[in-house]
Design a protein that fits this description.
Distance between the termini: 96 Å
Strand content: under 5%
Shape: rod-shaped
Structural class: mainly alpha
Number of helices: 3
Length: 99
Amino acid sequence: MPGLLRGVARTAVVAGTATAVSNRVSRRQAGRWSQQEYEQQQAYQQQAAAAPPPPPPAAPPAGDDMSSKLDQLQKLGELKAQGLLTEEEFAQQKSRLLG
C-alpha cells in the first residue's frame, strides 16, 4: 500500500508542476502577444498621424460637361472606397461638383 500511495503522490506532484509551468508559459505568451499588438497599434497610429491628408480633387474644367463630372464622381467614389476620403470629405466634394 505505501508503494501505491507514493506513486499517486508522485503523479500528483508531477501533474501539479506541469500545470503550473503550462500556466506560466501561457501567461508569458499572452503578455508578449499583447505587447506586440500594442506596439503595432502605436506604429499604425504614428503612420496615420504622419501621413498627409489626400489632396482635394482637381477643380472641374471650365466646360460643365456631364461626362467630366461623372468621371470625377467615380474617382471620388474610388477614393472613398479605398479609405482615402472620409464620408464627410466625400459629401463635401460631391456637393461642390454638383453645384
